[in-house]
User: Which sequence fits this backbone?
């Protein structure tokens, strides 16, 4: 059996959490990531019949039975993942209508998956329905996106349009726009269900006064998605209090659509 610490997906997860911490998106225990794995990817490194323990999930998601996830641990710091991956990360396989998770590796100090496991798992279900290639759900607390939810309208069309206007390439990176949830209590099935519903129409979901969720086919792409939205929010927070003399017009955004073969969310451009 090969060494799990050398599995490309584990190496990439360690690099991603480290990088996200370096971007200041994941203070203390902030943020969480789940990456769906194929059984073959896991079986190369672990005996998939050797269950360490079984952890209740607290929700029902029959679609996920038999699915494997590499996921960050509750209360764990992204900053520390690189030094002790087997304590801060775990690999689980869901069963019993998603109500139980068999732990196959990790959470070595007796820990368990992120408190946002419901939002992650329900978002995977939602994204897989619209994009069978989806593998990643990522949550973090980037300062400028958070700041923006204090001073900008939370209307999804308005929020998206502002981000598109802040950097020319935003409309190419997230043509479907950004969905927005009002402040809600985190770590609950309710915010999980609300997030998953928003994930049906966009890969980015802002949690007002809290952070953002991103989804994508791999860690790099999902990181890049959040990075691009956060960059746009940063520009906004630099200029919001200044007179705006110039902007990117809807006409110019239409030119971007044509040049890059994308289509902005229906009704979001004039
Ligand atoms: O504690 O970010 O939303 C991790 C979180 C909860
Ligand atoms: Zn959070």
Assistant:
């Amino acid at each position: 059996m090969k060494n799990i610490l050398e599995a490309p997906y584990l190496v990439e997860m360690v690099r991603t959490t480290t990088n996200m911490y370096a971007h200041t998106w994941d203070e203390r225990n902030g943020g969480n990531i789940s990456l769906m794995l194929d059984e073959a990817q896991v079986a190369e490194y672990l005996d998939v019949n050797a269950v360490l323990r079984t952890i209740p999930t607290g929700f029902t998601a029959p679609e996920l039975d038999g699915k494997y996830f590499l996921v960050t641990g509750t209360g764990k710091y992204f900053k520390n993942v690189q030094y002790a991956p087997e304590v801060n990360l775990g690999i689980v396989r869901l069963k019993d209508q998603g109500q139980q998770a068999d732990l196959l590796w990790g959470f070595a100090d007796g820990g368990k998956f992120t408190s946002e496991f419901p939002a992650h798992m329900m978002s995977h279900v939602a994204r897989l329905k619209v994009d069978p290639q989806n593998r990643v759900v990522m949550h973090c607390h980037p300062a400028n996106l958070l700041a923006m939810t204090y001073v900008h309208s939370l209307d999804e069309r308005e929020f998206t349009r502002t981000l598109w206007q802040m950097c020319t390439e935003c409309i190419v990176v997230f043509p479907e726009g950004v969905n927005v949830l009002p402040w809600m209590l985190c770590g609950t099935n309710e915010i999980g269900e609300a997030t998953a519903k928003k994930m049906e129409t966009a890969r980015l979901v802002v949690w007002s006064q809290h952070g953002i969720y991103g989804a994508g086919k791999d860690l790099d792409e999902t990181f890049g998605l959040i990075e691009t939205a956060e960059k746009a929010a940063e520009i906004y927070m630099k200029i919001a209090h200044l007179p705006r003399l110039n902007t990117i017009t809807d006409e110019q955004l239409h030119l971007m659509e044509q040049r890059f073969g994308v289509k902005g969310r229906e009704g979001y451009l004039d």
Summary: The first helix runs from residue 8 to 22. Residues 116-270 form a domain with the L-fuculose-1-phosphate Aldolase fold (CATH 3.40.225.10). Residues 29 and 93 are 23 Å apart (CA to CA).
